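Ligand-bound model needed. xanthosine-5'-monophosphate.
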Amino acid sequence: MDTSSIVILDFGSQYTQLIARRIREQNVFSVVLPCTAKLKEIASYKPLGIILSGGPSSVYDSDAPPADPGVLQLGKPVLGICYGLQFITHHLGGKVRSAEKREYGHAQVSVVDAATPLFSGLPASLQVWMSHGDEALDLPPGFHLTAKTSNAVAGIANPEKKIWAVQFHPEVHHTPLGTELLRNFLFNICNAKPDWTPEHFIQSTVSAIRDKVGDDHAICALSGGVDSSVAAVLVHRAIGDRLTCVFVDNGVLRKNEFFKVQENLRGKLGLNLVAVDASGRFLSKLAGITDPETKRKIIGNEFIAVFDDEAHRIAQQTGGVDWLVQGTLYPDVIESSSVKGPSQTIKSHHNVGGLPETMKLKLIEPLRDLFKDEVRRIGRDLGMPDDILQRQPFPGPGLAVRILGEITPERVALLQEADDIVVTEIKAAGLYQQIWQSFAVLLPVKSVGVMGDQRTYAYTCAIRAVHSEDGMTADWVPLPYDVLKKISSRIVNEIRGINRVVYDITSKPPGTIEWE
Ligand code: XMP
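Prediction:
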């Protein structure tokens, strides 16, 4: 990466990623590192400034996050946020204490030192979001108070040492002028340039991939979704047809998806694409299986087997493949680098592109610095169609996790039709892009109905529509009645085999988004 950046040290706040996003929204590159990052690693990002995030601990906790206080001596501007303020206070000779009155939620802050560049252009009284139990009691030598609430320190600074800190969270939207404050840090204090743009990213990434891959060959597993497609298009820009993309029909894709993806990626975007119809292979392995986890494992393993076969075939044709392209995004990188406690497996995720190390391929992950919305922006600049960029998330195991009970070709066909009706009607109502996911689920429940004068005995289909930020939690969406009515009427009238439609009104938690 040849741009300079702002390094954010993560002390465990739930808002750390938000700080990175807010800074990138100003077209300045920012990177989140664990608070334990070595000074050398921090320096390798050529930081123009360093932000110390919030965090749940107290500086006096025995397990307080152990950052190197040397970050305060690098001579780079530092902004401490919440725990970051307490870290600075504690390590530079001040005193932190447990607050008499804990502050959570909205608070009003008075700016005490209006000349502080951090508050430049901001009013004397600020509405902010606080969440802390500790507070600074004595400021470290050389520091002065820049802002306060009615009962606590809200901002401190030592301009000589280039250290600023606030007790509140400028990165959340409950601090309405927080972005202005962050802009002040970036542009008034760090002299950052807003040069982190899509063109810049595309140019530098394409040339870095070209240098890295040289004359070698690369392969990529495509799902037709946003991440793997944008990653493939970037690598294709760099090495052309020395990238072979593999798209596998696992028998549980959506209606016509096998053809649509080929048309988009090979036809419109010119990728060198091998489309493998392995549907028979998958469906025969899935026959008779009803347990959700077993289904997931079968599909994940079979995908790897099919991809491995293709990779060998391609290697024979090209004289060898050395690189594997993956659409890993920044949140995955941060998540896997943070310390995780033992957590229960709710579902074994299968991600297209998440392939095993035994393949012995070197990785190219061109999106590992980006958030999802940034990937869409890059895709747009690469000339990719909205069909791909605005697609709702679709799980790796496909329709299999939406067919409860046994998966048979007939039941796949039923759900493909129902899913197609849901997507078409949601799009027609102009709701597709406002909803995180909207889809149909086929239940293994038959009930009695009447059609004309005929008795029917057929399957039930559930409709699910959810809002979500990141898939971790979700709220069900109250779709307009007329849209539900149209969907229901089309499904029962057009699909022979489904005679009842129900609506899923469960949020996550306690439900999950997919039914299996
Ligand atoms: P759940 O059902 O766990 O889903 O609430 C959360 C989000 O993840 C998607 N999902 C998957 N995505 N491979 C994926 O790539 C998977 O195995 C998988 N399972 C669920 C789901 O569609 C939702 O967006």
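The domain at 198-389 is CATH 3.40.50.620 (Rossmann fold).
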